[in-house]
Amino acid sequence: MLNKTQPNWWRRAVAYQVYPKSFQDTTGSGTGDLQGIIRRLDYLAELGIDVIWLSPVFASPQVDNGYDISDYRAIDPRFGTMEDMDELIAKAKERGIGIVMDLVVNHCSDEHEWFQKACQDPDGRYGRFFYIEDWDGEHLPCNWRSAFGGSVWEPLPGHPDKIYLHTFHKKQPDLNWENPELREEIYKMVNWWLDKGLAGFRIDAIINIKKVLPYRDYPADRSDGMCSISTMNYHAKGIGQFLGEMADRCFTPHHAFTAGEVFYVNDEDLPEFIGDNGYFSSMFDFNETVCNASDKGWYDQKPITPEQYKACCFESQKKVAGFDGFLSNIIENHDEPRGVSRYIPKGECTVRGKKMLGGLNFLLRGLPFIYQGQELGMENLAVNSIDEVDDISARDEYQVALNAGLTEQQAMDAVNMFSRDNARTPFQWDTTENAGFTTGKPWLHVNPNYKEINLEAQRNDPDSVYQFYRTLIQLRKKSELEDAIIYGETVPYRVEQKNLMAYLRKGEKNTVLVMGNFQPEAQTVPLPGAVKQVLLNNCDTAAIADGAVTLEGYQLLVLWME
Ligand code: TEU
After folding, report:
1. Which of 351, 359, 344 is nearest to 469 (CA)?
2. Which residues, in sequence order, are CB contacts of 294 under 8 Å at separation 6+?
3. HSE, side-chain direction, 13 A CA sphere, residue 269
4. Which of 34, 144, 231, 435 might form a disulfide with 450, Cβ 3.0–4.6 angstroms?
């Protein structure tokens, strides 16, 4: 059990993301709930994780599945009550597990009291909590496109002569961080939660809190005449003032663990973000997820190749090596397709390949985050029609693809590849109806492959993806190898060898070699020295002879070197 009062305790942790809506329903409502997570705590303890990040369970109209919060200090009745939340924090703690909540403070819901009051009195205290501008009915202050499509500007309800800014959906008005009174309210709320005993926060869309002011246009990147909001993020300067203040006022005094959702940061600013005394403990590595992303939209994003995957991982590892930064490593989350469907080339997604991908990512330097169902090898679910899609981002991207001249089928193909629904289908517990997720009608379709891919079957199968993840977690916790596996430097090995992803983790005493053969054909790799022990293998044999190893297709080998 980790001692959470020790500085940097979280570096030795393994984190797990729960998407509450799709984890476990206990009421038959079709939506997962807090009691469902409590019921499954023993399962998570058995898996061996130390930290749970909960996607939002706050009061919300659920336009963006809880990322639109109408009351930061209330639990949405769909998920339960504040008593349930307190119970979850306490019961997790008994099992040595810390709860991390989602801090969504770039924006709130338009149904939040602050925004309601801002609509009543745009010039009053709460009007100043948002970005509200006068409007002549024609000219907008700037040409920024919101992340979910359309202009960031929307008429203020009840005020035809005013508009407000939203960098995501129009029901997610942006909070004005330039206003110290707003910041005070946020810090009070954050400290209120931390005082309840949270281990920390995952911090949503945080890079958006700093805007380019005065507003200005950027060159249009689509025929709609607008520019991506990321162009604005790229040009905004001075976010450090807000982030440093929040860390000083909230996180540092509570020794809280924080993982920032940071999409855009200059390399030279990285130490300020996650160095010693940085704004956050860690931040997610999205280098692989944004690989091949196109300004035009999802339809123009090419699938990532194994060589690109390797290059992205190594590039990120290198960026933080110089100052000892600790990234949070993922193959997927609630915003991304399933990692096994994305990173393993089409048609080759087998149990062996799933284990290889999991191992390659998990053993990189940093904090591994497992997303619910990843430990079972859950896969994407393609749907036939846009009417079956819940995700607001996917619905927008479908339209973007049609506008660009694609056929409905082509647009659906793009959506199926990247839709956020892919990772949001309910957790597959067993072979009973709805995979044991709910006795009611699930809010989102259950992947029909639950008959084959489910926890119950994998628990009893020593060769399952699930048991493999348990072994991986145990390997990370082997204290005699901690200098290498947790703190060791990442040194890429034979980068030029195609479809081989290999790296050394070099500690003060130990060296571990991680190798994955990212192709169906075998390939031979010379070894950098003598092997002390095979620590992990997703195949039955390890063909080590004469200073080399011949890896089978999609074989993963983790070797403890002399
Ligand atoms: O995501 C922020 C974000 O910038 C994106 O990755 C977003 O997922 C993408 O534009 C969709 O294709 C965070 C949350 O993780 C996401 O679920 C929320 O929708 C978003 O913020 C708004 O709160």
Report:
1. 359
2. 300, 301
3. 18
4. 435
Confidence band, pLDDT 50/70/90 cuts, at residue 3 = confident
Give the DSSP per-residue string, 208-242. GGS--SS------SSTTS-EEHHHHHHH---THHH
For the chain, give me the number of helices (H) and strands (E)? 17, 23
Active-site annotation holder among 84, 261, 285, 397: 261
- Residue 74's contacts (CB-CB under 8 Å, 6 or more residues apart) are 58, 59, 82
| pLDDT tens by residue, 165-196 | 999 999 999 999 999 999 999 999 999 999 99
Residue with tokens 């053969």: 517
Torsion on CA atoms 517, 519, 523, 529, rounded to nearest 10: -10
Minimum-distance ligand 1 atom for the alpha carbon of 107: 23
- 545 CA distance to ligand 1 middle (Å): 48
Please state, as a whole number, how many other Cβ atoms lie within 10 Å of the Cβ of residue 445. 15
State yes or no: pLDDT of 209 exceeds 90: yes
Tokens of residue 175, six digits: 């909070």
How many Cβ atoms from other residues are within 10 Å of residue 57's Cβ? 26
CA of 248 to the centre of ligand 1 (A): 26
Which residue puts its alpha carbon closest to atom 14 of ligand 1?
A: 204
- Quick check: CB of 64 below 6 Å from ligand 1? yes
